[in-house]
Amino acid sequence: MAVSQQPVQGGRRSAGSGSARQVGMRTMVVWVPDWPVLAAASVEGVSPDAPLAVLLKGRVLASSAAARAEGVRRGLRARDAQSRCPELLVLKYDPVIDARAFDPVIGCLEALTPGVQVIRPGMCALKARGPSRFYGSEPAAAEKLLDRLETYDVPGGRVGIADGPFAAEQAARAASAQTRVKVIPTGGSAEFLAPLTVDTLERPELTDLLRRLGLRSLGAFARLPATEVLTRFGPDGAFAHRLARGDDDRAVVARQVPPELTRTLDFEPPVDRVDQVAFAVRTVADELVGRLTALGLVCTTLRVEVGTESGRVHEREWLHPRWFAPGDVVDRVRWQLQGSGTATSELTSPVVRLRLVPERVDPVGAHVDTLWGSGPDERIHRALSRVQSMLGHGAVVTPVIGGGRGYADRQTLIPWGDPLTPDRSPDSPWPGSLPGPTAPPAPAAATATPVAAAPAPIASAPTSVPGAPTPVAAAPTPVSAASAPVHAAPAPGGSMPAGPTSVSVAPAAGPSMPIGPTPVPPVRAASSPRAASVSVLHSAPAPAPSPSKPSAPATHRPLPTTTPLPLPSTSGWPVPVPTLVYPTPHPAEVLSADGRPVTVSARGALSGAPSVFRLLPAPQVADSNKLYPITAWAGPWPVEERWWDSDTENRLARFQLVTADGRAWLAAIQNTHWWIEASYD
């Protein structure tokens, strides 16, 4: 029976062994190896010939030829890659930079042939029919495209030509530096793809299943019946089966060229006054905003580039809480030129060119006002932006809480108008970190007697209560300043209880509330195995009663029967955070009862119980050398981080100290030196 040779969806059907098989459209794929490395190196200003690696989620995404020569491979962890190549320079992958750097490359290819489809940054596809007919053959057209890339300073390109984009991509990857063009004859895609592994399908779940079934090559997968593959693996598996057979019927879809939104204003002769530039840019700003409105877009991030007669280009990105109107654009240009001067100030160098580049545009529907209005106050934004233009980009900042183990480490100061992205991700695990405010857990099925708050201190139970939570090495538990001083009831003879003590704290005067043991927050794993030491809240022994004057008996409150807290727990008790975190920790000295400095050994053992501390003289330190008697303390909580890097290694132990004036302090000892990091007022 004759087989129809009519093209179907841009392809052809060729006669096979008793069955018809569809042949995809002849496709040409242009591939630039190691493109993420080239793009990142161009931004960082380093040579791509150096040993470089681009990381994505802590693993190597791409590496340079010099790094591969040292054994760096795709998928390695950063630490393993650096152990193989100590000189390796690690760069962070940024998809925005990757796509932005590849856009001019697409433009240079479109100058030779239209209809380019971007597969991913560094790889594009186009129909082979038009260029091959114009330049005489497919190899000649491919060589012309590669020559065009080299003139644009993009060396090392490869071209693959086959039936369909998938086979053409694999042909481009099979090309080498000596043979830059690999052409697969018409109808030969299945034979070319047969020896390749199933990993080339880039479907991890499917390829893992195929390997377990013993199908390790595309040829073995392609020999399965199509109906059986559809039944067993579904539509996605059936599509992968067609790719393995060389029946890729996908068409090359040319990219939609984005509209040109950048506006350029040239000054001839050059202008040396701020008000003259601002007056001239008004027309360009109206044109830019009008074009965006016609496209249904608004600009939220604008880059202003000012070229001067001296050859320098001053550029800055401006953000807006809503969107830029023509007047806002003129204001930003004036502020950038004016700085700390006035509107009639003369510039240091005359302006010859001004470019307005919308860096980020959003659909206008995403910024429509709600019923009661939305967005920050524009007057505040304008005022702070004006101050920032006068004092400098980093003079007006916004604090952002990020990740870290200490309170000072978590704070990141972001210049006003920049995206509020902290230096360290708060979502990452930070073992050994200090706790923040958390929601209290659901109340346990227990009863507690409501007792009115008393002004006198409440003594703790002399022994641990069955069922009460046991203090364990955890993050520090700050003592609120509103609480009364904490004391432990002495055992007979004035000695302290032998075991851990659950401390009851009397609240400030106010409405009645249940009084019970202060719960301990859930355990946070320390950064070092040596940090798993047990710490409790220690209190100074109460003075013995005077024989001449009888003292009132200690007031004991009934302790509620509670269920022991599961350790660790995902829901902690509310822990107050410090009211004041010092930007620079204050040097201090902590002494024991015999007057010796308190130290901490490598195993977390103290040389003596903290009895008193004082702040050492330092800039911006008030009341230096004043002695603060310590009435209660908790710790140590060792932290050992970045031990593998000698430059950033940090090893310390933290304490909490409660002084006689009712204040609490967060202290740390590092290399026998004490520091006060924060205070709880």
TrEMBL record:
Low complexity bias: start-end ranges: 8-20, 484-500, 523-541, 551-560
Highest taxon of source: Bacteria
Residues covered by region (Disordered): 1-20, 412-449, 484-504, 516-570
UmuC domain boundaries: 49-169
CDD domains, A to Z: PolY_like
DNA damage listed as a keyword: yes
Biased composition (Pro residues): 428-443
Keyword vocabulary terms for this entry: DNA damage
InterPro entries linked: DNA/RNA_pol_sf (IPR043502), SulA_CellDiv_inhibitor (IPR050356), UmuC (IPR001126)
Protein name: UmuC domain-containing protein
Species lineage: Bacteria, Bacillati, Actinomycetota, Actinomycetes, Propionibacteriales
